[in-house]
Amino acid sequence: MNRFSRQFLVFVLVGFWCSPIVLAELPLGSETFSLSGFGTLGGPYNFDDGAGFIRDISQPKGARGNGVDWAIDSRLGLQGTWKPREDFSSTLQLVSKYRYDGSYRPEVTWAFLKYAINPNVQVRAGRLGTDIYLQADSRDVGYAYLWVRPPVDYFGQLFNSYIDGLDLTATRGFGDGLLRGKLYAGQLHETLPGAKGSEYSLNGSTVAGGHLEYQHLHWLFRVGYAAVRLENEGSIEPLLNALRSTGVPQAITLAQEMSSAGKHFDIFSAGVAYDNGPLQSQLMMSHLSSDLAMSSNNTAGYLSIGYRIGQWTPYLVYSRIKSKDPQYTTGLPNSLPFEAINAGVAQAFSFNQVNQETFSLGVRYDFAQNADFKLQLDWIDSRDNPSILWIDPEPDWDGQAAVLSATFDFVF
Amino acid sequence: MCCSKLRRFLLCSFGNGFPKQAWVRIGGLFGLALSASLTAGADDLAVIVNPQSGVEQLTKAEVVNLFLGRQKKLPSGATALTVDLAGPNAEKQQFYTRLVDKQLAEINSYWARLYFSGQGSPPRQAEAAEEVLDIIENNKGAIGYVERAKVDPRVKIVYILAD
Description:
heterodimer, A: 412 residues, mainly beta, Porin, 16-stranded antiparallel β-barrel, two-stranded antiparallel ribbon, 7 helices, 15% helix, globular, B: 163 residues, alpha/beta, D-Maltodextrin-Binding Protein, domain 2, five-stranded mixed sheet, 45% helix
């Protein structure tokens, strides 16, 4: 955590734990303060040992052969909420899960103040969950969704779970339904693991975006957009320097296009959910584009259908992600002394590619009012390897894997 | 320490809920044919508000929006205070079955998503119909539900959930 973010957090925490307004109005022993939590215990068994299966790109190592990998899906969250008045509240959430550095160090995922200007308009400030996609801000709460984990082909490439900033939500009636809009902006602070033990810090990168939803009884329609600007240079800086030092104009241009600092991501998403009694279905699509040359410019989507029968809800998911084939040239002959540079560039490009589809079949069993058990089988076909969604694939890996997962989710 | 709102929503009546629910179900089965023929609408659930709320009637969509926390305002403009029964119990299950055809576990899962993403809190949980009536009598924006037979002049019916 850098100095700015630490100061920001201290400011927010001091602001809401010690504010005289909060203390003055706090009737002790009532429900003004609440503490709750959520958790998941379980994980995948990857029948294939050719590559490491991950839940999302924040995970440094994946499940491959060797029994159930508890790290991938297990997590524990605690949330405290202080609501001294109907129009004002503050929330702090800590989550412990498998991190980019291989540890489970708890992280502050939410720390915000919420103020309702009126019942239909609210602002939040502080550390906020980002819902770039539908449900993206509750990915850690297994009890809140049907699947063992959010579809990896769709949610796996999301690189952050929170922002330090502001959001504004407004709701208004529209016919018999509701129209809801949200705008947000802030800074990113998470770190991503890279190839060969490297890391990429999102510190100082910014995101701004919003979405519009229309909800009518069983239907939810949603469109969203987010713009991200990367602040920091990646771990391939030595490679970029080598490209520049050749003096070849094409190589110098390519180095500029491959440099992360100052580059942008545009993320569009659209989808529809239909939820009627025992039937739950969702169709979501997204498109990511970037001016960072080796980023995975891709289109992704999933279709999920579940149907409750008593306490059991069997479900089916089909998901797909495909990145555009990268177009680049180093302008360097593939001979000494340039071979190594060409190979390095090719590797940097291939690392971010993805072309994958997944069929999932699973069941959620609601055996209690606050806990469930899930079993899910995924058949995954990763056609271009290496891939951004697999860790260290063997050179001869065929890209096909079956993954069986079981989780126990609870809230308290 | 106080009881968390969500925990209370999920657990506080966890212990005493099941036997009662089962009992009511068994009783309901035996009494079903008789009561249906003698007193039509006897197990109707009434959605009720404070007489001063300025609300005369609600549509089903409006009731869904309020109880699922999608809309936090009554049509009259007042901030809504939704009042639920602390579950699980037969009346509560009946309410959500008739309103959205959902099991209570699904309703809990729904609220877990909103609560843990900081978007909203579940309705206030009342221990019994009498408490629902008290809360509504004392809060202009309150909205809740009770069996139709328990409705008294302190509150106003704005929607009926029939079987």
